[in-house]
TrEMBL record:
Residues 16-140 form the MgtC/SapB/SrpB/YhiD N-terminal domain. The keyword Hydrolase does not apply. It holds the Pfam family MgtC. The keyword Membrane applies. InterPro entries: DUF4010, MgtC_SapB_SrpB_YhiD_N. Residues 188-398 form the DUF4010 domain. The lineage of its organism: Bacteria, Pseudomonadati, Pseudomonadota, Alphaproteobacteria, Emcibacterales. This is DUF4010 domain-containing protein.
Length: 437
């Protein structure tokens, strides 16, 4: 029987995970800064810092279990090892401390298991083993990361872990339309999607062709893909069909992206949009495949195409935050002066620049009295406006040949959106009528 109250709770595992993750974060930065050092020549690398974080979290768990003596013992041993390894290079020429930290954690795991806290002991042991086994993968990752990407990740952490918790969670301004916390939370969400999209393009798309680059690049910005590919098509007419397929593929990724944002704010609205977005995505991917499939052998130089780089910096989320605030104010004013349908006009204008802003505004509105159908139509209008804007970029930058390949796909997606919403509403009415009878 356990000698202490059971601590194998979700909170305990979450705390250990956070400790490990924070150690890994510091280790990634230190590992990148010291990447020129030979493996084993760094005093502490990415795995060492990850394990140090895990050891710290584990020591705190021991304290919570009432095992202060063992926690102090592990802390003392860790301090001793730091001192020893600081002078060890003069004796052995080696600097790594990963094995020593792993030995301490293993020792403490044994203590935990001895007190029959088997779940925690097993979780820590498995986490440590995974970190140790990721040596080559982590070193390859560090070697491939650029300083600008490290800075981007750190800036994202600033806006999410430092700025967000400091903001008040209440409405301000006319009609109480601006909630700083909720507004910035959406900035964090959109920034996270864009940052993940950037790394997806970097690690998965190079050399894989225009179509995959378009799909992954759509996570960053389908508009950026449209502009970039259209410019490429100006000087490389033979690639116009393939580039058009890439633009269509990128545009289809807009739908799951919008659904993710909508679901985070209003699951009921996301459910309403699921059918129209699914139909539009199917139509868009089919149109892209129809263009790409007969010409797949013609794109001999596809691998040279790269998605536009994601220059994530602190100004980008701030700019989006300003745009989102303006759209929220405009939407509140339109609803106050014109009624709920006033949101349609705001969506048509805002969609030209960005779909996310009107998506957030409509989603928040649907949880505060705005009908689901009005919110859904507003988002569809924003998506339509954005698609027409991208078609305009293609026409101006890519010319008529590329536009001829693009417009049927865009038109098909727009029709599918509104047809899907109509079908969804008809089915809903029929089900409600059946339930009422």
């Amino acid at each position: 029987m356990s000698l202490t109250p059971p601590l194998a709770t979700v909170e305990t595992f979450l705390a250990l995970g956070v400790a490990l993750g924070l150690g890994l974060l510091v280790g990634l930065e230190r590992g990148w800064s010291l990447r020129a050092e030979p493996v084993g020549g760094r005093y502490a690398g990415v795995r060492s810092f990850a394990l140090i974080g895990l050891l710290g979290g584990f020591t705190a768990v021991l304290e919570a279990m009432g095992l202060r003596l063992y926690g102090l013992m592990s802390f003392a041993i860790f301090g001793l090892i730091l001192v020893v390894t600081a002078v060890r290079p003069s004796i052995t020429g080696a600097r790594g401390i990963t094995t020593f930290i792993a030995a301490i954690i293993t020792f403490v795991v044994g203590i935990c298991a001895g007190f029959q806290e088997f779940e925690i002991a097993a979780a820590v042991a498995v986490a440590m083993t995974v970190v140790l086994g990721m040596k080559d993968s982590l070193h390859r990752f560090i070697a491939g990361v650029e300083r600008s990407e490290i800075n981007a990740a750190l800036q994202f952490l600033i806006i999410s872990a430092i700025v967000l918790p400091m903001l008040p969670n209440q409405g301000y301004g006319p009609w109480q339309a601006l909630n700083p916390y909720q507004l910035w939370w959406m900035v964090v969400l959109i920034s996270a999607i864009s940052l993940l999209g950037h790394f997806a393009v970097k690690w998965m798309a190079p050399g894989k062709g225009i179509l995959l680059t378009g799909v992954l690049g759509g996570l960053v910005s389908s508009t950026a893909i449209a502009v970039s590919f259209s410019r490429m098509g100006t000087g490389r007419r033979e690639l116009a069909p393939m580039l058009a397929a890439g633009i269509l593929a990128a545009s289809t990724i807009m739908f799951p992206r919008v659904l993710i944002v909508t679901f985070a704010l209003s699951p009921a609205l996301a459910e309403t949009l699921l059918l129209p977005f699914a139909l539009a995505m199917i139509v868009g991917l089919f149109a892209a495949w129809r263009i790409w499939s007969p010409r797949r052998d013609e794109g001999a130089h596809e691998g040279e195409i790269e998605a536009p780089e994601s220059s994530f910096d602190i100004a980008t989320p701030i700019q989006f935050g300003v745009l989102l605030a303006l759209v929220m104010l405009a939407a509140a004013a339109a609803r106050a002066w014109v009624g709920d349908q006033g949101l349609y006009y705001v969506a048509a204008v805002a969609g030209i620049v960005d779909v996310d802003a009107i998506t957030v505004t409509a989603s928040r509105g649907s949880t505060a009295g705005l009908s689901l159908i009005v919110a859904s139509v507003s988002i569809l209008i924003g998506v339509t406006s954005n698609s027409l804007a991208k078609a305009g970029f293609v026409a101006v930058l890519g010319g008529g040949p590329m536009l001829r390949f693009i417009w049927p796909g865009f038109l098909g997606m727009i029709v599918a959106l509104f047809a899907g919403l109509g079908i969804e509403q008809i089915v809903k009415v029929a089900l409600d009528a059946g339930a009422g009878s």
